[in-house]
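Recap quiz, item 2
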Amino acid sequence: MTSVANRTVASRLAGHHDLLVTGALGIAVLVVPILALTVPEGSALHLSTFSVTLLGKYLCFALLALAVDLVWGYCGILSLGHGAFFALGGYAMGMYLMRQIGDRGVYGNPILPDFMVFLDWQELPWYWWGFSSFPFSMAMVVAVPGLLALVFGWFAFRSRVNGVYLSIITQALTYALLLAFFRNEMGFGGNNGLTDFKEILGFDLQADATRVGLFVTTALVLIASYTVTRGVVSSRFGRVLVAIRDAEDRMRFLGYRTEHYKLWAFVLSGVIAGVAGALYVPQVGIINPGEFAPLNSIELVIWVAIGGRGTLHGAIVGAILVNFAKTWFTGLLPEAWLFVLGALFVMGTLFLPRGLVGLVSRRER
Amino acid sequence: MSPEGVEGSDLLHGAILYLDGITVSFDGFRALDGLSLTIDRGELRCIIGANGAGKSTMMDVVTGKTRPDAGVAFFDRHHDLLAMSEADIAMAGIGRKFQKPTVFTNLTVRTNLELAMRDDRSVWRSLRARLDGEQRDRIEETLESIGLHLLADADAGTLSHGQKQWLEIGMLLMQDPKLLLVDEPVAGMTHQETERTAELLVSLAGGRSVVVVEHDMEFVRSIARRVTVLHEGRLLAEGDMESVQNDPRVVEVYLGTPC
């Protein structure tokens, strides 16, 4: 039967990327710990902790790009505020890490983080309760961005806010959160954010083994998220998303509640972005309101565009390559990076409408 | 409120669509002005009228896209269309084919039909939906009847204009509506394609009710048994093609002017 034949061709094509992505990440999971921990420091093959952390950061960005590609690439929802979900996940993790400091802070207060002592606060605000527990904090990493995506998406999609208007209000959303988190009264460390972390689950955050562990965790989470999102976009749900992207009105007249489909895709995407933020914070050692900057959210859309939107693996490739280029270039000519990024975006749009991965395979979905 | 309470029930006997006193205003302009219309079960009806006569607005009201300022609209006796969302109306059994063929260009012809197929539309179900043998057969049958079985795995975006129109008709077949609203089905078609479309539409009626809005008088003549003429948001005349064509009011406002 032709339909069966077609399905196997399609799954073989998709399986081909899946194998490459999960294979490459799986190899990294095996090889990076060996190179970082067992190869002696003098050897050319030795991977410094700095490099491991850098790679871990790239994988967090890849996870974030995956989240954006799910809603933008497949459903046409151009969110320019995904940095907000990333930052909220990061703050939830940061709050846990702050509580782990205990009395080792500068002021030695066993309950209150340093910035609260500095602000002369007497007790922990209610919304900090529970964050000394790792499971509770992880639940918040998922729940807070997920809830924001649910509430925001429910209003936006129900009111049929589309296209550029949706992009603008997502920018407004992340900007509003930026301003709010800057305020000391909010109780999230204001301008300085949360930092000076000591340990996670009892492991010293400065230790090489912990850094490697965080890298491995990030890679495994990326593999899992990639597998889940691939499953989602390969299901009928995924085909409905693409159909909504192409002709939403038509889908309504076919009887689909398009706002429900968009909402759940948006929530899943927000949750993945939040998890990415939570993995990012212990590796870079700080979370501050700067992560809410509207520019960040725009930049990450460019990673997806350059990698190839609507492919999932393109988002991962784009995020890693662009950030690698950024690290390299900002070392060379720091002021010029934004111009380079802009040029990459323009050139990519003009000459690679299907992104970098579109170069490799001409036809994919 | 049931339609029986509005008018005599004998009038509704066998009616699939019942509109009464529908009024729609856009910024003071009355797109529909107390329009009343009844479509019988299994009927193939053509609606004609000049641009701005209210044909598209009428379809928008029936499919839930536009809410009228006044009037009642019932479908299949007990569905109050004015209280339902577009998606609910579609699921109750009203299909719509737009003037411009709108297919999902980045999905294959087969997937287009799959998405149109009458099935559970919930998000949860869509995550685990698998086509069973019966559904797969239905898709194959439809592919045959719209003549696109050789292009089943092509992206819908690569089809010609006429093929897109047929794919859309195929999608409506999969949706299996009780009432089909078709907006200018032969606009931009070649003569051959037009004939083929006429055959398709005639074969569709009988099992279900079909309402066709069309400018092409030749085409209307070839398929219509009953014609409704709209003018300035109101019903101007109704009857078989011959009596409508000879109606002096119709001649004056529509057929008399070269089109």
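Residues 1-11 of chain B have pLDDT under 50 and may be disordered.
Strands of chain B lie at 15-26, 29-40, 44-48, 70-75, 79-80, 94-97, 179-183, 209-213, 226-231, 234-239.
End of item.
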